[in-house]
Amino acid sequence: MKDWIVPTLGALVFWGFWGFLPKITTTYLAPRSAIVYEVLGAIVLAIAMLISLNFQPQVHPIGIGLAMTTGMLGFAGAFCFLTAVLTGPVTLVATVSALYPIVSIFLAIAFLHETITLQQGIGIVLAIVAMILVAA
Asked: For residues 93 and 84, what is the distance between their CA atoms, to the nearest angstrom?
């Protein structure tokens, strides 16, 4: 088995729960409050990770800037998701927002010069069509 399969399946499961729980959360908390508690939950895990690194994370100015930007983008995406599930059905909000890799793919092609096969391109087009059909 390839070494990326297990963490990928982990992401699938964690993000699956991540996509479901906000619908319940927003019945008790407004999105602006819920996001604060989400961040606190992330801080708990960040502290655990910091402990596992013996309080010596790698330091590189560009890496730190990119990681912090990633965190801010994740926060913004999570807030948008919370706001959407407040009034929208989680089944549709989760489906449409789960297609975010399409943005990542286009960015990877444009800036990292990665390539995709014809079959992968057809899959991406079908994913876009699926999003349109689901959101309609």
From this structure: 7
For the entire predicted model, the pTM comes to 0.85
CA distance 84 to 97: 10
Query: 30 and 78 in contact (C-beta within 8 Å)?
Result: no
List the chain pLDDT tens, one digit each, 136 residues. 889 999 999 998 999 999 999 999 999 999 999 999 999 999 999 999 999 999 999 999 999 999 999 999 999 999 999 999 999 999 899 988 999 999 999 999 999 999 999 999 999 999 999 988 988 8
Question: If you count them, how many residues does the chain have?
Answer: 136
- Between CA 131 and CA 106 the distance in angstroms is 16
Instruction: Write out the two tokens for 1.
Output: 């088995």
C-alpha 77/C-alpha 19 separation (Å) is: 11
Q: Please, what is the end-to-end C-alpha distance for the chain in angstroms?
A: 39
Task: Give me the long-range contacts of 63-69 (CB less than 8 A, separation at least 24).
Answer: none
Residues whose CB falls within 8 Å of the CB of residue 93, separated by 6 or more in sequence, listed in order: 81, 84, 85
